[in-house]
């Protein structure tokens, strides 16, 4: 039997969900923070690929979920970093005989059971299980297909043996309701409770009663002859680390809460998909996985952002705060898609608008450090075909002193969209006269297009590739990129006009460097952090960019209460953005929204002051 089990798809079946957790030792399976991932509703073949990759990357299965229904077969799982590199095994789609063989083999190989799944495919019952290396030599037990009476008797036996329940499953068979569970020695002496066959009301009452002293370890739900029934395992929660539980969620609600809790600093430890008379529902248990849930300024930040959202009637707003090299705050407010009730979260990509200029300034100096451009040189050195009136330098373009036209001041950007390069866009308008004397201050998005045309010629790379290869990839900035609407491998928010009417994205390849980049708030905040820490630019380049007050290389540089500040705001159709950095304090505030026409900079300044003075 292969490690992932036999691949099955499209076969009729009956659902039977279950949950599990390896339990002790807590330092390995319930650490304060650990890398994790989860997938849901994958086909058997897709999950086989996911499983192989996650195992190769050093993860183990924390919870396996197989949900089979007529004509369908879906697999989900929660993965967690295998902190002590212990051996483990996960098999699925086993017959009764195969399961017995593999169970005996796992025991012989020094593994203990932590998860059991059973489900019906056609007329055949199938089994799946997860085992982990029994490094601690803990006693354990796992049984299935027990009647209610048999389960009760076995429950008392395991309780007398001082064991802790890890997994509870209740499922329907032609012979009636059946039960399964996994147990392990309770060497950490945790108080616990296991309850099954609960109505929704009974479950809710127990949940409320146990919420203070206990946390949930497992949750199960099944539709039986008497209606929907629930089971749960509660264990003591020494230290009071936070946790969350959600049940009976539609798919849309599941996605919203999954993202919200991830932003708030929780990791998923248990995932459920189950049938109800109202349709498929989802449930999960989350565990605190960072200091974000207990950040002392969290409530104040929430209140200030929510007030802005309410007062400005913005569809959606997302914020990231980095302090001392850690995400202190990640949160989306409002909607990424109002009509479909999709909440905005920090994983949604939004337009950077003119914050793109600050990124371009850093890119220019990055290329300076790499010896490929000299900002003091005339632009014409890099663009020999540019008309003679363009006597500015690269630095003057980056400082908005090149006197290139802005919107509505000349022929502007052409209509030959999309543009493959900044050069192609610049050639559409660079024949126009300059609008002032070079060296005078004049804000210009078009000037940044000419700047990036020069960078392209100096490096023989187009703008999109320059951003990706010189910033995004080497510094782990994820979604920071030139906006290319044909690229659909990101979760873009919907965008809205100032009347909150849904509008379509416009092609912005004509102005990538001045206003056509995109990112998540989390990634643009991390860009700010790495920039401030001197990880992207040399000391001379940092001095050139932020060494004096005023507008420099796309940034407005100044001070607040004696603390240096570098900031940039942006707004265009369907976007408002703001990036604020306190370089000497390692504080970064990033916010983005899916509508212009509100004072995002003031909100960013207020949040900056909150953190600076907090």
Automatic annotation (TrEMBL):
Record InterPro entries: AmpC-like, Beta-lactam-related, Beta-lactam/transpept-like, PGH-like_rpt
Beta-lactamase-related domain boundaries: 302-599
Residues annotated as signal peptide: 1-20
Keyword RNA-binding: no
SUPFAM superfamilies: beta-lactamase/transpeptidase-like (SSF56601)
Entries under Pfam families matching the protein: Beta-lactamase, BTRD1
Keywords, comma-separated and alphabetical: Signal
UniProt superkingdom: Bacteria
Protein name in UniProt: Beta-lactamase-related domain-containing protein
Annotated source species: Actinoplanes auranticolor
Species lineage: Bacteria, Bacillati, Actinomycetota, Actinomycetes, Micromonosporales
């Amino acid at each position: 039997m292969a490690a992932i089990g036999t691949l099955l798809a499209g076969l009729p079946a009956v659902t039977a969900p279950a949950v599990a957790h390896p339990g002790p030792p807590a330092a390995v399976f319930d650490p304060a923070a650990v890398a994790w991932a989860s997938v849901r509703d994958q086909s058997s073949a897709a999950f086989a690929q996911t499983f192989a990759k996650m195992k190769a990357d050093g993860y183990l299965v924390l919870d396996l979920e197989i949900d089979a229904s007529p004509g369908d077969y879906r697999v989900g799982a929660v993965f967690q970093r295998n902190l002590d590199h212990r051996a483990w095994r996960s098999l699925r789609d086993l017959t009764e005989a195969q399961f017995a063989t593999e169970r005996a083999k796992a025991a012989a190989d020094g593994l203990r059971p932590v998860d059991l799944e059973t489900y019906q495919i056609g007329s055949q019952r199938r089994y799946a299980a997860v085992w982990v290396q029994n490094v601690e030599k803990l006693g354990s037990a796992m049984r299935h297909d027990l009647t209610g009476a048999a389960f009760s008797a076995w429950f008392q036996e395991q309780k007398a043996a001082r064991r802790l329940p890890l997994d509870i499953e209740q499922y329907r068979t032609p012979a009636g309701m059946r039960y399964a569970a996994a147990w392990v020695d309770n060497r950490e002496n945790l108080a616990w409770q296991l309850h099954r066959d609960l109505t929704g009301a009974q479950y809710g009452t127990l949940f409320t009663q146990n919420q203070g002293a206990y946390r949930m370890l497992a949750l199960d739900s099944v539709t039986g002859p008497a209606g929907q029934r629930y089971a749960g395992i509660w264990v003591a929660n020494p230290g009071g680390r936070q946790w969350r539980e959600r049940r009976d969620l539609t798919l849309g609600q599941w996605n919203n809460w999954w993202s919200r809790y991830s932003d708030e600093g929780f990791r998923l430890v248990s995932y459920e998909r189950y049938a109800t008379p109202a349709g498929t529902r989802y449930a999960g248990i989350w565990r605190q996985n960072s200091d974000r849930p207990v950040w002392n300024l969290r409530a104040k930040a929430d209140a200030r952002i929510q007030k802005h959202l309410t007062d400005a009637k913005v569809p959606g707003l997302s914020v990231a705060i980095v302090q001392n090299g850690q995400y202190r705050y990640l949160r989306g407010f409002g909607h990424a898609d109002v009509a479909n009730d999709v909440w905005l979260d920090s994983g949604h990509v939004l337009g950077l608008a003119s914050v793109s200029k600050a990124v371009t300034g850093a890119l220019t100096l990055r290329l300076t450090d790499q010896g490929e451009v000299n900002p003091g040189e005339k632009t014409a050195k890099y663009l020999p075909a540019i008309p003679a009136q363009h006597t500015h330098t690269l630095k003057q373009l980056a400082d908005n002193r090149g006197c290139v036209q802005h919107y509505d001041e000349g022929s502007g950007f052409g209509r030959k969209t999309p543009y493959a390069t900044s050069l192609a866009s610049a050639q559409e308008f660079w024949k126009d006269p300059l609008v002032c004397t070079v060296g005078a201050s004049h804000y210009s998005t078009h000037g940044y297009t000419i700047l990036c045309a020069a960078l392209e010629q100096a490096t023989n790379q187009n703008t999109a590739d320059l951003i990706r290869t010189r910033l995004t990839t080497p510094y782990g900035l994820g979604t920071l990129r030139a906006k290319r609407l044909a690229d659909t491998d990101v979760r873009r928010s919907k965008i809205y006009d100032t009347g909150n009417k849904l509008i379509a994205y416009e092609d912005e390849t004509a102005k990538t460097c001045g206003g056509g980049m995109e990112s998540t708030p989390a990634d643009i905040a991390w860009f700010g952090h790495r920039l401030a820490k001197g990880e992207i630019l040399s000391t001379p380049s940092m001095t050139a960019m932020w060494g004096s007050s005023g507008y420099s290389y796309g940034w407005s540089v100044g001070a607040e209460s004696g603390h240096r500040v570098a900031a940039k705001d942006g707004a265009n159709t369907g976007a408002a953005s703001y990036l604020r950095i306190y370089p000497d304090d390692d504080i970064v505030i990033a916010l983005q929204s899916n509508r212009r026409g509100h004072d995002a900079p003031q909100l960013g300044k207020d949040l900056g002051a909150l953190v600076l003075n907090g």
